[in-house]
Amino acid sequence: MSGPFSIQNWEAWFSDWGFFAQGFLRTIYISLLGLVFTLVIGVIVGMLLCGKNRLILALCKGYMSFFQNTPLVIQIFIYYNVLPKLGIRLGVVAIGVLGLALYTGAYAADIVRSAIKAVPTGQMEAAYSQGFSYLQTMRYIILPQAVKIGLPPMTNQAVNLIKNSSVLAVIAGGELMYRADSWSGSNLIYGPTFVMTGILYLSICLPISLLARWMEKRSVRHV
Amino acid sequence: MFDRWIHAFSVVFSKNILLFLGRGLLNTLYIAAVSIVLSLILGTILGLMRNSRGKLISALATLYIEIVRNIPLALFIIAMRFLTKLPPLESGIAAMTVFTSAIIAEVVRGGLNSVGKGQWEAATSQGFSRTQTLWYVIIPQAIRRIRSPLVSQFVTTIKDTSFCAVVGTYELSFTSKIVAAHRTIVTAEDILVLYLLVAMIYYVVNRIFSGIARRERGNAMKGIVR
Question: Most A CBs within 10 Å: which of B21, B63, B67, B82, as the mutation test of the A interface?
Answer without folding.
Answer: B82
